[in-house]
Amino acid sequence: MEKGDLSARIDAKIREKTGLVSKKAIQAYHFFCCAADYDGRTKGMILDGDAKRYFYDITRKEILEKQGIKNLDMLDDKRKEEINEKIHGAVSRKYAHWYNLFMEKGLISAPRKPFPKCHYIMPMLLGYNPFNDLGFYIPYKSKGQKEWNGRISRDFLTPEERKRMEELGEVFKV
Questions:
Q1: In Å, how far are 6, 11, 65, 117, 170 from 25, measured between CA atoms?
Q2: With 70 as the cut, is the pLDDT of residue 2 above it?
Q3: pLDDT digits (tens, 9 = 90+) for 117-167
Q4: Is pLDDT above 80 for 1?
Q5: pTM for the complete prediction?
Q6: How many domains does one find in the chain?
Q7: Lesser CB count within 10 Å: N end or C end of the chain?
Q8: 91 vs 145: CA distance, rounded Å
Q9: What is the rounded CA–CA span in Å between residue 9 and residue 42?
């Protein structure tokens, strides 16, 4: 199967489960899903830094294209700093916009402790997470581990790849 097919099916499932309609909203929600833990006591905890990194990557690309810049490293320091400030400002605004919107829709919680006796607070993903959907991904872990520490797309896990991973000590949930 083509990667585009998987992407389109995941987008359709996110649309169905969350009620999000626009491509940008679905993409932003996908970023939060990518940054959410998927097993153990912290299941659903969104790692803010990871989520912001996804927003950073896409925003950087958009701004550089808009400015007609192919390589940021080729600019002088002052111009590079101006562009970086623009990127970081845009990332902060985008992240805050989507975070607040998804909180209003009940898809993300306000920051809270992921489990009792925890010393930090983080937002939690409350809505559908395609990475936990066994229709799309198969969780795996190394032999001897308690928690599922990886997941691989069903579409791309060939019998040969599965056998290779099992020989390396990986155990699949299904």
A1: 18, 10, 21, 34, 35
A2: no
A3: 888 888 999 999 998 899 999 999 999 888 888 889 998 899 999 999 999
A4: no
A5: 0.84
A6: 2
A7: C
A8: 36
A9: 27
In this structure, what are the phi and psi dihedrals at residue 138, rounded to the nearest 5 degrees? Answer: -110, 120
pLDDT digits (tens, 9 = 90+) for 81-103: 999 999 999 999 999 999 999 99
The model's pLDDT over 20-72, given as tens digits with 9 standing for 90+, comes to 999 999 999 999 999 998 776 677 889 888 999 999 999 999 999 999 988 88
Q: Give yes or no: residues 120 and 145 share one domain.
A: no
In this structure, the strands spanning 150-153 and 137-142 are antiparallel
Using alpha carbons only, give the angle 150, 61, 31 rounded to the nearest 5 degrees: 35
Residues 63 and 89 in one domain: yes
- Are residues 69 and 40 located together in one domain of the fold? yes
Q: Are residues 52 and 105 in the same domain?
A: yes
88 and 69 in one domain? yes
Contact 54, 31 (CB under 8 A): yes
Structure tokens, 147:
């928690």
- Count of beta carbons in the 10 Å neighbourhood of residue 87: 18
Domain range for residue 169? 134-174
Sheet holding 137-142, edge to edge: 150-153, 137-142, 170-172
